[in-house]
Model the fold of this input.
Amino acid sequence: MLYTRGFSRSSPTEPQPQNDPAPAAAAASRPPHLSAISARPELSIVIPVYNEEEILREAAEGLLERTRRLGVPFEVIFAENGSRDGTLKLLSELHEAHPEIRYLSCGEPNYGLALKKGIEMAEGTFVICDEIDLCDAEFHRAAVGILDSGASEMVIGSKLARGAKDDRPFVRHFATVVINLLLRIAVGFKGTDTHGLKAFRRSNLLPVVASCKVDRDLFASEFVVRAERSGKKIVEIPVTIQEKRKPSINLFRRVPNVLKNLVRLFYIVRIKG
Done:
């Protein structure tokens, strides 16, 4: 396992050809209007959404505009999970208006399940997991460059790495510090962050995704921990995070479930192996 921290976002990379076979059925399963743009996207951006009606349209259209500047075929997959507002209806409208947008609904408030299903639905050579209130185009560009160079199989946008700037309220920053400390103690995690921005080469990491057992708030953590333990090459780059809106789920309401799944993750990783 290679763990590199402090990788400069502006570091030049020299793309090298990579073999990334995809199922033959992938192109055939794409909607006709999307197939007209590209038989298969090079980049998939997966974003779980829950009760995001207020910011969804503006965030989605802004993301499309910025991602088109990368000059690669791409898709954006919104993974809806149990919204009670008009999020699902709005996703249908966005899908009709923009052929790059796809979406799914897992029917229950379950961030981890939605993210996992979105990753499994993705068809790009590279997959980026993002958040609707982040959509960090700078991270997208840097991560794709690193992955395409072959320097790494996974790139983590860390809120705690040297050079990162976390401008969220103190309680949210503190929660990130605490969960990272608990992961170090419980499962021997060696990195600085597991939640939020991450990118990876799809073919290399799909088996890791399939092996994950925990959902909800700790799927993302299990994914990164399993990637680390399986020897994947991981690079962390610092990111700047600002809170654009209050969390859709109260932070303190999530604590019991996080602790429960942390115990489960400890058992799965440390005991069962």
Observations:
- Confidence is low (pLDDT under 50) at residues 5-36.
